[in-house]
């Protein structure tokens, strides 16, 4: 006699919906996934999905909240472990390589173009930038333009690296290093010996 499958608790079902949605959003793109698609993949009904989330936008918003807060909390110790004497490029390379290891979250972050999610991505980049200012060598507290360039470049390069397997991640990391070192040197030169 076979046992009936255990019924999922409400929190387990909610997480199951989130996990399936993440998979579909990454695979198809946010705009291509409907509540009906989720219900079909989970072998449940649309009303069941709606009892947990009012829309696919709400699902993506919660997913991004979960994934990005976890991502940043895992990144913090890596940046804290950098030596205060580390060159500026070290922090950028640590972040770049870390983002490569977070391919699904990075793809999810870029899976939709709705204004709400653009705002979420910009907020993430701002938080990423705040983490980079912890490295005093980067001079980013005084150079918000360079901070914006570096965080945007990190995000774009990492996304390209995880979506295009033909790209050499090590070569991208070296290029990023060259860019950051050059930018920091230019800033030091522009601020005289007092900075």
Automatic annotation (TrEMBL):
UniProt keywords, alphabetically: DNA-binding
Record's keyword annotation contains DNA-binding: yes
Keyword Lipid metabolism: no
DNA-binding region as annotated in the record: 34-53
One example GO MF annotation: DNA-binding transcription factor activity
SUPFAM superfamilies named among the record's database cross-references: Homeodomain-like
InterPro entries: Homeodomain-like_sf (IPR009057), HTH-type_TetR-like_transc_reg (IPR050109), HTH_TetR (IPR001647)
Domain HTH tetR-type: 11-71
Protein name (Swiss-Prot/TrEMBL): TetR/AcrR family transcriptional regulator
Organismal lineage: Bacteria, Thermotogati, Deinococcota, Deinococci, Deinococcales
